[in-house]
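User: Here's a chain of 215 residues. Predict its fold as tokens.
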Amino acid sequence: MDDPRDLRRTYDRIAGHFAATREYAWPEVEAFVRDCSKGGVGLDLGCGNGRHAELLAGRVDRVIGADLSRALLEEARERARERGFRIELLQADAAALPLRSSCVDVGIYVATLHHLPDRRSRVESLDELARVLAPGGRALVSAWSTVHDRFESEGAEEGFDTTVDWTLPGGETVPRFYHVYAPAEFEADLETSALSTVSFELSSGNCYATVRPEQ
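Assistant: Prediction complete.
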């Protein structure tokens, strides 16, 4: 059985079906992008099929979509071709981005942080986001939370590691690694990183934070 912590292999296996079920942008991301200044460079970190990069493309001058899964990047390429938006695609580890410092004006880092296999790599990825954000830049970061309906019955007040199966057509299941954040833990990891929190909220079972690089 594949290691569910091997994020690239996991999402390469499920990319086509996963992308087909991720048609629409999240309303929290729509609100964040709508409030961002126009122009500059946007980064969708963990871009998946590009649904949120498409939002950025209507707001900024240049969009970079980064993901560890090559198969998901191909899904994003196809979406951009079909819908007529421009995107530069980059296969990259969120904890080691091949981008120059201070080059991103608007960042989206949603539904990806919780897949990284340990706290060190998660905080390193937040540091990388801080490094590539320009002075005055902003990003939206999200992760699954213990307040999600799926976990309420477990009474979880602390973050924990788990796997959540993805079921492919035909019934094959592919386990995916998650670190489910307690809200206070999410805020603590942000504080530990080189990011400053502008705002924080719990919505739809997720932690969301608007962040900027430390001054």
